[in-house]
Amino acid sequence: MNGLNETSQFLIRHGLPLLFAAILVEQMGLPIPALPLLLAAGALSATGKFSLSLGIVVTVIACLIADAFWFYLGRYRGNQVLGFLCRISLEPDSCVRRTQNVFTRYGLRGVVVAKFVPGMSTVAPPLAGMAGVGIGRFLLFDGFGSLLYGGLYLCLGHFFSSQMEQIAAAIVHIGGSALGLMAALAAAFISYKYWQRRSLLRELRTARISVAELRQSLDAGENPVILDLRSKAELEQNPSVIRGAIHLVLDEIERRRHEFPHDRDIVVYCSCPNEVSSARVAQLLQRKGFARVRPLLGGIDAWREGDHPMEMRTGNATANVS
């Protein structure tokens, strides 16, 4: 039990600074979970060796500092920030897309919801900044979400302190070999997700169509089917699409694929770095027998940078695309 006692003494001596640092690092986007520390601090508060109220205050302050940082970066460097977050995320496209969908459905309440979903808590602040939300309103909702986040897990640790002590004792009893195995499994999972993502991009790299090639095809009257795969929230923020493009959310692709022609080129694009969403849709359609589907290299951002023709999306994407 010496290891358990030493850990407890360390938390008693350095609990507040350690909690602040862990929350700040987690909210900045690094894959270091603060939840175990929140639960452990809450368990210590049940013995009177840690202040529950100060723990909640420290958690809220750490969250507000990190989230205000990402909020302002999103306000002034939106696409670059999302690009960076997507590059360091294991599930870049789904993380951003899910957060955008939450904003579409809940508005600023999505900032509160995002606090409890891994990955979304870091993506939500820059998206709020990109959406033009006022800093005062953002901090109000973000502070409330941070209060719920810190209060919930610290209180769980407080009320289930005896169970937490039993778990900690069991971990110490198991020893370092089991912990090493857990660390190895975590590293293997991260490596697999990274390999899976890189394999997808390599598979479709040679099949991508460049902005210049798509523009040449349109000017030549070849009439390819162009699918805009951005989220509804992003489209509402910037409703312009590539000329002739049809907007579909990812969930509609499987249901509406029978509308797509097999004898025409299909070009899919999104706004994700490395065209991850469009690459996955292209792969899905290829497996369903669509041999002429290609992701747009650089996505919508590359098309905008080239100052190529765009048009305002009108109505719903319900027209038949065949």
From TrEMBL:
Molecular function, one GO term: thiosulfate-cyanide sulfurtransferase activity
Localization annotation: Cell membrane
Stored Pfam families: Rhodanese, VTT_dom
Location of the Rhodanese domain: 220-312
InterPro entries xref list: DedA_domain (IPR051311), Rhodanese-like_dom (IPR001763), Rhodanese-like_dom_sf (IPR036873), Thiosulf_sulfurTrfase (IPR023695), VTT_dom (IPR032816)
Keywords: Cell membrane, Membrane, Transmembrane, Transmembrane helix
GO cellular component: cytoplasm; plasma membrane
Superkingdom: Bacteria
Membrane-traversing stretches: 18-44, 50-73, 138-161, 167-192
Membrane topology: Multi-pass membrane protein
SUPFAM superfamilies: Rhodanese/Cell cycle control phosphatase
UniProt-listed PANTHER family: ALKALINE PHOSPHATASE LIKE PROTEIN (PTHR42709), UNDECAPRENYL PHOSPHATE TRANSPORTER A (PTHR42709:SF6)
Official protein name in the record: Rhodanese domain protein
Organism, as annotated: Pedosphaera parvula (strain Ellin514)
